[in-house]
From TrEMBL:
<dbReference type="InterPro" id="IPR013022">
    <property type="entry name" value="Xyl_isomerase-like_TIM-brl"/>
</dbReference>
<dbReference type="GO" id="GO:0016853">
    <property type="term" value="F:isomerase activity"/>
</dbReference>
<protein>
    <submittedName>
        <fullName>Sugar phosphate isomerase/epimerase</fullName>
    </submittedName>
</protein>
<keyword id="KW-0413">Isomerase</keyword>
<dbReference type="Pfam" id="PF01261">
    <property type="entry name" value="AP_endonuc_2"/>
</dbReference>
<feature type="domain" description="Xylose isomerase-like TIM barrel">
    <location>
        <begin position="29"/>
        <end position="266"/>
    </location>
</feature>
<dbReference type="InterPro" id="IPR050417">
    <property type="entry name" value="Sugar_Epim/Isomerase"/>
</dbReference>
<dbReference type="InterPro" id="IPR036237">
    <property type="entry name" value="Xyl_isomerase-like_sf"/>
</dbReference>
């Protein structure tokens, strides 16, 4: 498994759960010095930074890009895959596809979290899930062309009324028959929705393609009450070998949050990537 830290370059989400902010080069230098394997990147759009510059930074600091987030599509533009307006849904698909193309230039998949949206008032849930299915199916075709996975994230009940737990995510993806769509197991969301984090991970198995590493209070692991021993054991049991990415609040500050995260990663998963 490989360690990863989040970097956000979107001022509008300054209160969000990302460790590093603002300056990509400085943040990557800090991540590399602490021994992280990778970064997870959140930008306002696909053209915020050039792919060539990002590649140069990854080479300089010996880091990979684990994933790119798409949440700015909702935060900045109000786009979701389940909006009742078909034009907005089309724009949401286009925004995500652009982010996927950007990520693919550095071998990184895109994450669909908040851009999945909600069941809007006056809309039946089955209809909203149909729109979500249409969006993911279309984007799966893009992912196949790009040769990267597409990561879908179940969110807790306070953030979406669509799909809230891993098993529901597995059932939904299985029903689509997509080839590149995988699940994101976010430990913070799971602490709210799952009866047992470890059992849910075991049940989801190979559908899990990415892990968000945050404690029960969304602070860095070790600052809440998540039972990480059982979670780490479950990830090993399913043969997970991907990224363990710190989407957590920068508490008490970014530098100490990053230090806490890498210490916790090394405690539960070892000192180096495997």
């Amino acid at each position: 498994m490989k360690s990863c830290v989040t970097i956000a370059l979107v001022p509008d989400i300054k209160t969000g759960p990302w460790i590093y902010w603002d300056d990509l080069e400085i943040s990557m230098a800090k991540a590399a010095k602490l021994g992280f394997d990778a970064i997870e990147l959140f930008t306002p759009s696909a053209d915020t930074i050039s792919s060539s510059w990002l590649l140069e930074l990854t080479r300089r600091f010996g880091l990979t890009v684990a994933a790119v987030g798409t949440g700015a599509g909702k935060v900045l533009h109000g786009l979701t895959l389940t909006d009742p307006d078909p034009q907005i849904r089309a724009k949401a698909v286009a925004f995500i596809a652009d982010m996927m193309s950007f990520g693919a230039t550095v071998g990184a998949p895109a994450i669909i979290g908040s851009m999945q949206g909600n069941v809007a008032p006056g809309t039946e849930k089955v209809q909203a899930l149909g729109w979500l299915a249409d969006g993911l199916t279309t984007l799966d075709q893009t992912a196949q062309k790009l040769g990267v996975p597409l990561i879908y994230e179940p969110l807790n009940r306070y953030e979406t009324n669509l799909i809230n737990d891993l098993q529901a995510g597995v059932d939904f993806i299985r029903s689509l028959g997509t080839k590149q769509v995988v699940l994101l197991a976010d430990l913070f969301h799971m602490n709210i929705e799952e009866a047992s984090l470890a059992d849910s991970i075991r049940a989801a198995g190979s559908y899990i393609g990415h892990v968000h590493f945050a404690d029960s209070n969304r602070r860095p692991i070790g600052l809440g009450h998540t039972s990480m021993d059982s979670v780490a054991a479950a990830l090993r049991e399913i043969g997970y070998s991907g990224y363990i990415s710190a989407e957590a609040f920068p508490y008490p500050d970014p530098d100490r949050a990053a230090q806490q995260t890498i210490r916790s990663f090394q405690t539960y998963f070892g000192p180096s990537s495997t």
